Amino acid sequence: MRIGEIAALVGVTSRAVRHYHHLGLLPEPERRANGYRVYTVRDAVLLARIRRLSELGLSLDEVRDVLADDAGRELAEVLGELDADLARQEEEIRTRRRRLAELTAGTLPPEGPVSPALARLLGAMPETTSAMAAKDRELLTLLDTVGGDEIVYDALLPLTRDPDVLALYERLDDLADAAVGDPRVGPLAEALAAVIPAEVLAKLARADGPALEGFGDAFLADFAPAQAEVAQHVMEALAKRMDGEGQG
């Protein structure tokens, strides 16, 4: 048989046969004087086995292990690993479908698909033109992507019903053009730190590492000078609260 004939017999392409030769999965057959490869029935049997193993989901490296007999792993072992991997993929798909069902069951926020807990929080936030409130929504969406916490979102829910919190956003907006050292900075920072729930504080206490430090710098750089000063004071106040609760 020529390469086209064996490929057609087994149900693969001639290109695939050449690729298997290149990888060493299928030995190169002898060539006739005219240069054509001559394939035997044994070659066809081996090629058919390569196709079956590939269709089971084995990578070509795993196929090579199976075909290597003494040097490779047993077929049962490779298939067992494949079955476990497929089971993990099935669970991941089920989890993603559950999340999609939860998202489509409600109203998606303007920020797009987020966790159900954050969707509840964003949906409960009052409508406002506050630039700082919009920035807060963006920050929550970012944090949700990198590791949101349902307990934290639920702890923040009561704040959406507190009119004083909206007033705090507006006070922050008023500092957009203020200079560092503005007398409104200190009182506003104290008021903001006071409304942070204990659950959020506990989440902050567990967060650590170089990535968090880099995020903190970028977070402050996203504010106007006086607003950044407020944020810095809030973080310092929260750090003192965490130290105090840790010692208590």
From TrEMBL:
GO terms assigned for molecular function: DNA binding; DNA-binding transcription factor activity
Coiled-coil region list: 79-106
Pfam families linked to this entry: MerR_1
SUPFAM superfamilies the UniProt entry points to: Putative DNA-binding domain
InterPro entries: DNA-bd_dom_put_sf, MerR-type_HTH_dom, MerR_fam
Alphabetical keyword list: Coiled coil, DNA-binding
SMART domains: HTH_MERR
Domain HTH merR-type residues, every copy: 1-69
Superkingdom of source: Bacteria
UniProt-listed PANTHER family: HTH MERR-TYPE DOMAIN-CONTAINING PROTEIN, REDOX-CYCLING DRUG-SENSING TRANSCRIPTIONAL ACTIVATOR SOXR
Protein name: MerR family transcriptional regulator
Organism: Streptomyces niveus
